[in-house]
């Protein structure tokens, strides 16, 4: 016999689906199958059951082999590394719960560390733009119930947020959107004919890197002013047609992703996208929302902001928080060779940072807290495997629209394994002693 | 042998996501991310068969990946490597004071490297950090 755990929250992407069902063995120790999840979410639950999983901390030896150590020894090593460093970097935080983030920030404050989350490589530029000009946004529930004009700009939810469209943005029948996808217009802006673009009523195949120009052209089109024949590879007529679709809806939303945040222009692209949204509110109701990647990157921004005042790239080296992306951001700190210890949790910069930054992590003392074997754990001096948040432990996470949702524990972690929060608490207590903090 | 120039972008694919959660040390991750998706027109210019190993070089690094026909095209002149260690050997680390490297829009050269191996994800990063690739 098996039993089913319902209303499970998926700890993969920022959509944070909360309708998963997981069937487990009667003793509640093993996951057998996952229902309602996308392929990636299901794999996350199922891979946690892998037989070859690392269950104890391991220290990398000079010859590249690994020596298994206890969690106590791992906590000692981590505390000594952080307490002894002049400028440690504590990076990641996006694939763990808010409770662990908060505990980590306590350590960071005592060790005068630089704290940064994965917004550094996804929506950091969005956060700069929001600080520049604000963000007219809404919740995903409002999108489901009201939105009839959906713009996906530089994002590909078919691949990156696979259930976003079926739960919120395109297919669901909401209070004022009773006809589901038939009552919605979909416009996709992307340099590739992505699987999302193939579903669209209109696809604007923008020239890569010219999003700013196209966004600016929209603002001109809304005002019926003169436009050149072609802007960013899109003919004038098509821009005007798309602008009219946006103006004609009753409630519209722009979802945007890495296509605009990572291309040249960066925060200025987002500035302009927000300005487009502001302009559209002269004609109809319009919102804008970043498609956040990790399931709790939004939570990390929230916790950092309420504790230190800034959502990412926080520098505590002077004992008080400073924020200056480009100076205090992790990739710049790494490529300039300024940090002397790297602590990574809930993310994989080894795979997702430019290699010149990864080389610096490999050079200094480093600790990687991650349930998986990753490129980061592969180049770190110490790898501490932990329980999967959202699978083997609960905790709070924030959805991409800033709605906090409590994750559920589905099964126990393998015997003797700690959670992020438990391990960080051990490190915090040790750092307190080393620093002589009461 | 011919060389072509492409504008490189990277991003998520669903197989990248599944392979990443399945284990970055595994072969499936290499199959999902150790690739460059190219347009049919660019294959003709390069003069090679689909699924050939190629060397991709940017001003910031070089990597061997498998050239595959794009599933989300046409996009002539644009190359796509799913996000991961292979793409990150090539991207521009300059953040222009935003904290964000320029992951999209790196000019790269692609040439055939039929007999060169594609490394596994963890192995690639370890070797790159030791200066062996």
Describe, in plain words, how this protein is organized in 3D.
The complex is a heterodimer of chains A (438) and B (133). Chain A has three domains: 2-47; 58-121 and 295-435, Rossmann fold (3-Layer(aba) Sandwich); 124-290, Dimethylsulfoxide Reductase, domain 2 (3-Layer(aba) Sandwich). Chain A starts with a strand and ends with a helix. Chain A contains 18 helices and 21 strands. A nine-stranded mixed β-sheet of chain A has the order 5-4-19-18-17-6-7-15-16, with helices on both faces. A five-stranded parallel β-sheet of chain A has the order 10-9-8-13-14. Chain A has a three-stranded antiparallel β-sheet with strand order 1-2-3. In chain A, 37% of the residues lie in helices and 20% in strands. The mean pLDDT of chain B is 94. The chains are: A alpha/beta (438), B alpha/beta (133). At the A-B interface, helix 1, helix 4, helix 6, helix 11 and helix 14 of A face strand 1, helix 1 and helix 4 of B.
How many DSSP E strands of chain B? Answer: 6
Return the structural class of chain A: alpha/beta
Order of helices and strands of chain B: EHHEHEEEEH
As residue ranges, the low-confidence spans of chain B are none
Q: What would the average pLDDT of chain B be, to the nearest integer?
A: 94
Secondary structure tally: strands of chain A:
21
Mean pLDDT of chain A comes to 96
Overall form of chain A: globular
Q: Can you count the helices of chain B?
A: 4
The major β-sheet of chain B equals:
6 strands, mixed
């Amino acid at each position: 016999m098996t039993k089913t755990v319902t209303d499970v929250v998926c700890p993969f992407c920022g959509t944070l689906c909360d309708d998963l069902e997981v069937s487990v063995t009667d003793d509640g120790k093993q996951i057998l199958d996952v229902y309602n999840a996308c392929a990636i979410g299901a794999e996350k639950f199922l891979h946690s059951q892998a037989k070859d999983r690392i269950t104890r901390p391991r220290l990398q030896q000079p010859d590249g082999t690994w020596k298994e150590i206890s969690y106590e020894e791992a906590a000692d090593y981590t505390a000594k590394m952080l307490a002894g460093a002049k400028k440690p970097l504590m990076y990641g935080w996006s694939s763990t719960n808010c409770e662990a983030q908060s505990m980590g920030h306590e350590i960071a404050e005592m060790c005068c560390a630089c704290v940064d989350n994965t917004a550094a490589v996804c929506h950091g530029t969005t956060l700069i733009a929001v600080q520049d000009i604000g963000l007219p946004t809404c919740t995903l529930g409002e999108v489901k119930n009201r939105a009839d004009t959906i713009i996906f700009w530089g994002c590909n939810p078919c691949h990156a947020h696979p259930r976003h469209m079926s739960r919120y943005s395109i297919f669901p029948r909401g209070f004022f959107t009773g006809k589901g996808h038939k009552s919605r217009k979909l416009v996709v802006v992307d340099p590739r004919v992505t699987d999302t673009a193939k579903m669209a009523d209109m696809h604007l195949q923008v020239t890569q890197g010219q999003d700013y120009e196209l966004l600016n052209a929209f603002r001109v089109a809304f005002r019926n002013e003169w436009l050149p024949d072609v802007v960013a590879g899109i003919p004038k007529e098509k821009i005007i047609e798309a602008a009219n679709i946006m103006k004609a809806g009753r409630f519209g939303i722009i979802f945007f992703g890495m296509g605009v945040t990572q291309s040249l222009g960066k925060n200025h692209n987002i500035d302009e996208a927000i300005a487009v949204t502001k302009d559209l509110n002269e004609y109809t109701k319009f919102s804008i929302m970043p498609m956040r990647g990790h399931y709790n990157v939004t939570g990390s921004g929230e916790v950092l902001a309420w504790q230190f005042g800034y959502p990412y790239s926080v520098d505590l080296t002077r004992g008080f928080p400073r924020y200056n992306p480009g100076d205090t951001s992790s990739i710049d700190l790494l490529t300039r060779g300024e940090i002397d210890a790297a602590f990574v949790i809930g993310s994989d910069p080894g795979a997702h940072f430019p290699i010149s930054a990864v080389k610096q992590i490999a050079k200094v003392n480093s600790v990687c807290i991650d349930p998986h074997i990753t490129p980061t754990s592969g180049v770190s001096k110490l790898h501490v495997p932990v329980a999967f948040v959202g699978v083997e432990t609960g905790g709070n996470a924030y959805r991409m629209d800033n709605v906090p949702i409590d994750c559920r524990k589905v099964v126990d972690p393998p015997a003797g394994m700690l959670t992020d929060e438990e391990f960080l608490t051990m490190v915090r207590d040790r750092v307190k002693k080393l620093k002589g903090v009461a | 042998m011919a060389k072509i120039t492409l504008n490189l972008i990277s991003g998520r694919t669903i197989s990248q996501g599944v392979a990443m959660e399945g284990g970055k040390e595994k072969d499936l991750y290499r199959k999902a991310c150790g690739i460059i998706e190219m347009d049919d027109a660019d294959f003709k210019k390069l003069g090679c068969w689909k699924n050939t190993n190629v060397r991709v070089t940017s001003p910031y690094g070089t990597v061997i990946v498998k050239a595959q026909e794009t599933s989300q095209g046409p996009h002539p002149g644009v190359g796509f490597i799913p996000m991961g260690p292979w793409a990150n050997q090539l991207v521009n680390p300059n953040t222009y004071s935003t904290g964000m490297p320029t992951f999209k829009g790196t000019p790269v050269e692609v040439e055939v490297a039929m007999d060169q191996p594609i490394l596994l994800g963890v192995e690639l990063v370890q070797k790159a950090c030791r200066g062996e690739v």
